[in-house]
Amino acid sequence: MGANPKVELCGSGTTPARRAPESKGRPTALGKFLWRGGAKLYLRGVTYGPFRPNNGSDYRTPELVARDFSMMSAVGVNTVRVYTVPPRWLLDLAEQHGLLVLGGLPWEQHVTFLDDRNRARSIERRVCQGVRSLAGHPALLGVTIGNEIPASIVRWHGRRRIERFLRRLYQAAKAEDGETLVTYVNFPTTEYLELDFLDFSCFNVYLETQEQLDCYLARLQNLAGEKPLVMAEIGLDSLRHGWNKQAATLDWQLRTTFARGAAGAFVFAWTDEWHRGGHDIEDWDFGLTTRDGEPKASLMAVQRAFAEIPVAEGTDWPKVSVVVCSCNGVRTIADTLDHLAQVTYPCFETIVVSDGSTDQTAAIARGYAGVRVIETPNHGLSAARNLGMRAAKGEIIAYIDDDAYPDPHWLHYLAHAFRTTNHAAIGGPNLPPTGDGPIAECVARAPGGPIHVLVGDELAEHIPGCNLAVRKSALEAAGGCNSKASL
To answer: Domains in the chain, ordered, with CATH?
Structure first.
């Protein structure tokens, strides 16, 4: 059966954590998403600047920034990416308008910086100074410790030296402010850099066909692994393509990005005004607004797309039957059902099959409104799954274990994948809950997980049953599950 381990990117697959963070403080990264105040934080972002220096500042006047931030907030933007260290007053304005800021820590990455030890030490000191100047501000999302180190520089120094240096900068930033999220902004030319120490994965990607972007996002999700994936720049130049083409392209770029399970996306850019290398850039117009602040057609397109993430609601959602098979699962099944109660999908049922349980598994399940409980003598997992299949009223059956915890949008991603592909089965990824101990970590890393059995960016040779969704018609045609089947 076909498998797409990237479309169902629900938190950490079936479990971002046992519980979302309870504090109202700084954003955190758990599983495949960012969280804040106990809720998932999708980054609906735009890039901002750099601008022509003004009285020592890389930003517009506070009055213009306040105007821009007010417009951003009004169209659903919640995060702003800047390319230099922002002044505190800009963070204060962001907080006033309900925005978060991803700050840049610029340094001379376009030269052979590792050939000079003094230069390397100076870069580290400046990174620390930048983080120190931002530390603790409630509007700070995090910082980027670099942006697109050229492939020629990576080849010159070697990937391992670059990876070690970026790790060094990451650790230096964390030493200054341990709660700040730290990332590096990569791009396709150096996608091979292994940077799994980052808090979340960022890529700048400019692709002008939906099919290409969709395929590449599947690859990026594999490269991101267990970390959230954020598109740090997407966009289209309206000077060459026109306002309407820019609007239409940004619409599908954003919708495709979020449907593929990204934790966020930044549109490049808020305004056509852009200053780089001592010059105003006048032969590109990537902005959602003109240099004079006039909204383009793309601004309304972005507003609509941001309002409908991760996938647009509609009336054609297929009914899903979630089947939880359990044998003496009293220790964990309540957690699973608690998380299922938070799933936001509009059309699903939950069936618990108690396979010969001698504890209170069935009684606990009956305590949840709307949960159907089927008790049966113990005949094994495959028989329990088949019993759930026969009882299911949905056209899709989503199997989940009694110790797995789905993300609130788990079924949205699955259903969207079924609507847009002809796959018979879809599943993964599956990550261990935070703090579950070394045994869970070892199991997660053992061969057989979704990432280990991929035969391409989207297809796998089998799907782990703890997070397995199947078209009911296909499963019935295959004769259901049996003890020897990969299901």
So the answer is: 43-307 (3.20.20.80), 320-477 (3.90.550.10)
